[in-house]
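For practice. Any example?
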Amino acid sequence: MATAPVMKESPAAGALLRADALAVTYQGRRGGPPARAVDGVDLDVGRGEIVALVGESGCGKTTLARTLLGLVPPTAGRVVFAGEPLGYGARALKAYRRRVQLVLQDPTGALNPRHTVYDAVAEGLRIHGGASDERAAVAEALARAGLRPPERFLLRYPHELSGGQRQRVVIAGALVLRPELLVADEPVASLDASVRGEILALLLSLRDELGLSALVVTHDLGLAWNIADRVAVMYLGRIVEAGPVEEVLSAPRHPYTRALLSVLPDSSAPPVVLTGEPPDPTRVPPGCRFHARCQVLAAAGPVHPEAATACRTRDLPVLPGHGPHTAACHWPTAEP
């Protein structure tokens, strides 16, 4: 019977950002049980690495990303950046957010319609300071984001730009501070299919040319395949499978990952229709938190009663933040 490894590996030497036993709990409604939005997560992002965080809506991936950005303080565990635990004082957070920048999924909502492109990109410099030549820094950021020549865009307003150009402006606003890591929350979800590839290619070029790291939050495993070095699949507040993107997406070990992959347009596997909705985070089920919707358990549970009992009753350990392909699954097929 397969289980996730109990012993954690030490983080990779090149780890830039690390979630260490991270948990975020929200107070329940009307005195009810608390909601465990993030429920014990170890996750590393190495220097010059792109990691995709994948899962359904409501699985906790956006809360995890906001916690890694310092926008939500953890209930337990810690965020470690460049070997130092994140501090939550105003000065520490300001210094941290210069080095770690957020790219939102909706560029229209992220940009003030009354501000020119120049003002939108320069805003970070004006908050954090440190640019001897603001105009040159803004022009360089726009050029790096693919808006060339930058002089054509400086005095334009968001409504004068296409969706792809607006997203490039948002990326330029992050790049102007010369960060070490980007957290991109569904960076192409609001864009037409024709420009999604351009934005993904831009993120890859930034990694290759600047050594920039990125955590890309997405529900789209196809996007993860195209852009990520590693992928972490999240379900109900936990990472349930993680590893190099080629291994995870070519030979998934967790039934949830297999279900997500089965509905991709180019999948050769029959689509898996998961029954019901993800459980309420205020009532996380015992055992494997996916067992109530697991297609493997439903089909083969009577044949393997020991594994079925473990799925329903035995909790699984937190997966290590870095290392080889691992899955939090009691089922024998979790082993390669």
Residues 193-210 form the longest helix (18 residues). The two ends are 12 Å apart (CA to CA). The first strand starts at residue 15 and ends at 26.
